Amino acid sequence: MASQTHFVDGHLITRPPYFDGTNYQYWKNKMSIRLEANSYEMWDCIARGPYKVLVRDKNNKLVPKDPASYDDADRKRLQINAQAKNALFCALHPSEYDRISACESAKEMWDKLQVAYEGTNEVKKSKISMLVKKYELFKMKSDEDIKDMFTRFTKITNELKLFDRVLPKEDKVRKIPRSLPKSWCSIKTTIEEAHDLSAMTVDMLQGKLFTPFKSSSKDESDSDEEDDEEFVLLAQKFKRLLRKDKLKNQGQQKKNYKSSKGKGESSKKDEIICYKCKKVGHIKFECPNNDEKSLKAKKKKKAMVATWSYSEDSSSSKEESGMEAHICLMANVSWQMMTQMREVSRKN
Known about the structure:
two-stranded antiparallel sheet, mainly alpha, about 0% strand, zinc ion binding
C-alpha cells in the first residue's frame, strides 16, 4: 500500500485568525490581509479611521451628528465600522477582548492592541533600530544553506515592513551577495557579471544562487561515492600486497636458513692444520717454525698476493671478498707444492 502524505490543516476562510496574546506580528499581518479580503472599506476604516458621523455646531466645532439626521452615506460608514469591530472581536481571546471592549471604533481597537504589543513610538523606534542593525550585519551562517539564509533574511525585511520601514528592492538584492562567505566568491562574481542586479528581484537572485548550490551538493555526493569506491579498491590492493610480502618473507627466511647451514659446513672445511707443527689456523709454508729460506719465500708470496688484491676494486661485496680469500688459499697451496718439489729434486 502506498504511503499517505499528511498535511497540516490550514485556517478556514470564513474564520478570522485567532489572537491569544502571543506572536502579535504574525496575527497582525494575517488579520490585515483578512480584513482587506472581506472588504477593503473595512481595512480603510481601520487604517484611515475612525469613522464617526460628525457635524459642525453653531460655534463651528465638530460634534456627533444626531442619529435621527443620518442619511444613507452616514449609515453605510457606521455599518463598515461595525463590521470591522465585529471581525476584531471574533478574532480575540477573552483576555484580549477585555483590553479593547470599551473602544467605540475599529481604529481605536486596532491602535490599542498595537501599543500593547509593539509599544509606544519610542519603543517602536528602538525595535526598528535593532532590526536595521540585524539587516546591516546580516551574514550567511556556516551551518545553513541558501534556503535557510533567504528565509532568515526575508523575516528581517518583513518585520521592518510591519514597522513601516520599507527597504528598496535594489538595496536588498545587492545586500545578499555581500552576505555570502568567501567559498561563494566565484558564483557571486559570475552572477554579478552576467546579470544586472538593479533589474533583479530577491526571488530571482535566490533562484540563481540555489541552482549552483544544488548542483554542487550533487557533485559532492557523487564525489563521496567515488571516494568510497576508490578506498575499497585501495584496501583490496593493499591486502594483496601484504599477502605477497608475507609469502616473500617466508621464502627468504627458508633461503637464509639453508645459506647459513651451508656456510657452517664450509667453515668447518676451511679449518686448516699445519703439517709441521700440527697446529690449526695456518699451513706448513706459513708455520713460524720454518727456517730462513722459508721465511723469504713467505714474504715473496705475500707480495704477490698484495699485488693481486690491489688490482681488485676496493668497494667489492662480501661475496667478492670471499672469492679473493679462496684464490689466495689456492695460491698458498700451489707455492707450497712447488717448494716441496724443489727440495726433492735437490736431494736426488
